Protein 1
Amino acid sequence: MSTSPQQDPKDRPARLTVGVVGAGRVGPALAAALQLAGHRPVAVSGVSDASRRRAAEMLPDVPLVSPAQVLERADLVLLTVPDDALPGLVEGLAETGAVRPGQLLVHTSGRYGARVLDPALRAGALPLALHPAMTFTGTPVDVQRLAGCSFGVTAPVELRLAAEALVIEMGAEPEWIAEESRPLYHAALALGANHLVTLVAESMELLRAAGVEAPDRMLGPLLGAALDNALRSGDAALTGPVARGDAGTVAAHVSELRRHAPQTVAGYLAMARATADRALAHGLLKPELAEDLLGVLADGTAGTAGPGSAEGDAR
């Protein structure tokens, strides 16, 4: 085993100059991670006061310039703008001659693959789609969270190794996503991560209404275990009244939600129906119990609740 000292990344010769167009939550974090790998951020663009403050915090001493000036100064340009703004931005940069031949142009949209960069490709750029499967706060903690997270990678075949190398340099894991699969890939991530936030927030609100003083402390171990079980076992990890076929308990839930939080009823019913379908398909929900349960979920009433039905638990 070699005992030679490891070179500090800050002392490595910079291999690429890096620019960021769109100083939202993602761009500065990726540029900071690339800086740790030996690359050199040289320019960033941002419009809002928040984005400018974020750039100053995450990339100190890196000048704030226009998007065209970012492309003029950088070998590797990160386009970290909202999905809907990306096609127009790429077309505009290509039409104005801002794109340089041989320039690496990287977008971080989950929705799009590399084809959205075709206008820049025709101008000689090298197109890469690198989407981090991570939620960002816009603070330095984001750089640490990149370690070990996955990136959805889409690029022309001849650039695949370069794209994957950049992801690895940021401490993350590349996962190849075919161009035509990008929307489905992104929908899967949104379903899991974005909707999880909504579910947890609603759950905490309901617990507060029930008198729980620290809903986050109560939910933390429960949700952590549920997530771990789901990642390990998939549908076999399903528990609770829907998977057991406790129609009376589910009816009592719906009744209480209608009284205390009617805005949550539609979401509860939709998730309960999806859970029932999966539990039934995987043999967890007994067919003889499914009829009453699905009846409750179909009309969303408490009419089938039996005696003591409010005493169901979260097993």
Note: The first strand starts at residue 17 and ends at 21.
Protein 2
Amino acid sequence: MRAVAAMTVAATAVLLSACGSTSDSGSDGGGGDNGQESADGPVGVVLPLLTSPFWQAYNEYVPQMADSEGVDAMDTINSDNDSAQQITDINNLLNQNVAGLVVAPLDSAAIAAALDQAERRGVPVVAVDVAPESGQVEMIVRANNVAYGEMACDYLGEQVGEGKVVQIMGDLSSVNGRERSEAFRACAAEKYPDLEVLEIPADWESDKAAAQLDTLLNANPDIQGIYMQAGGVYLAPTLQTLRSKDMLHPAGEEGHITIVSNDGIPQELEAIRSGEIDATVSQPADSYAQYGMYYIRAAMAGETFEPGPTDHGSTIVELPNGLLEDQLPAPLVTRENVDDPELWGNSR
């Protein structure tokens, strides 16, 4: 894993330099209903689900990174892939007078109701992984999901060239699912017209992915490539479905289906080494946890931020809805760099 201390120093320098942020001592730092600036007080952390190895890893990083950043993080709450439950979870935390919230939204639109409640209570919120469509958050900690779809498209386009490829999509109520899907589709149409893109709307659910992939393979046994938008939930069912049809052949062998994924979990890295899949985009679960904690502590202390490059290898951008997003690096992993010790999946 990256050295936490070194990254903390780098993150702290964001506020002290002109690297993408500015201090504003007059802003409300949260802290429940009292409206006073404070970097102290309990912070609620809300997860979207825990059935994915990616979110399991993030969940394990949270207390470690909270300690590193000096944040009093409460035990995490799992919304179990239910957006209505997530709003209830956030309201329950607000009723416990939390000083801040770090939330990974399930539904980019629905989360606005909970964000509005937090704003009324003067409680700052940092969003992780998913950008809300509306509502107030101090920062979105995320990687560029459009780039995810484009990298997957380029990889399959270069490796497959022509033929049928499948994208197993996420939940389209999440901006992540929409951006990855639209970017992959647009890239294929523009740059690789000989690819025929087939789509599976799987909603981040492994059972849906397996059932629809099975049906699709029955009708299209000549599929050449697969893009899994979330290896954490789609890797196991995809490999099992291919194995059950005797269609899982290692890279380099005749009949191999080129597979590129998203997440960077240890299981994906091992699958790359064995040749079962070819590539993945490594979402930084460790950095999501670290910078979620970093930004909520800064927000509770009254700090504000501006667009621009940071000194931890990312860029803060202003989204069309006016929210700020720190777009953390997310590298493409192949056989050439799968053993890189800087990949968080190699530290698990």
Note: The CA atoms of residues 20 and 89 lie 32 Å apart.
Protein 3
Amino acid sequence: MDVSFLGGPRPQRGVGVVAPFDFALDRELWRWIPDEVSLHLTRTPYVPIEVSLDLARLVSEHETLSEGVRTLIAIAPEVVAYACTSGSFVGGIAGERAMCEAMTRAGAVPSVTTSGALLEALADLGARRVALVTPYTVSVTRSLEEYVAEAGVRVTGCAFMGLTRHIWKVPYRDVVDMARGAVRRGTDCLFISCTNLPTYDVIPQLEAELRIPVISANQVTMWAALRRLGTRAVGPYQTLIDPAARSGPALPDVEQQQEGST
């Protein structure tokens, strides 16, 4: 069979991803990626510590990140993303910026982190009041709240699960329940934290129900990385990705609804 009419493969555009050793949602990341882009993932070395602030600091050390980026250089990605929310907010805004600088020095390419992408997405959406959903313990969740507040964004509500392991096993229904409990009147946007928490399929459902933009850790990471390539993430009915979806009715008075149901 003559296949010469097919030509060769299309030129590859690559996004390098450095993820923590326990990251389990490779397939979810791919769902935001257009056909002309490939993801190239590498992981930080294993450390026998549960999800905590200590773990966040260990998996975000500059030498650890730089080594991860160096493992990707041979395949020449055009941008590198660090896919970890807690690891990129634990040092505050200055720490997040220093991480990007370290990765860029190691790979000579633009770099983004999940928490940096979060602030970029909130600015793009014009959101100044955010509700948070996390699978973390209280101490890790408070660190996220401090990071967001440092950026001048008000936290209007928060729900967390207190998990220290196996976060990727959390079912969608638990994510939805937490979201409903976190959103309050006057909230501009809901952020679902942790790159190991599945979110892709619940984003459209929650946006339709809550009538505000819903963004998640993996979504903003891929969105920001692809932005550096001058291309767009794919995700049906997701406000961050589809500007046409950004206009809609205001959020109902959640507090009044809750009072009326008692």
Note: The chain is about 40% helix and 15% strand.
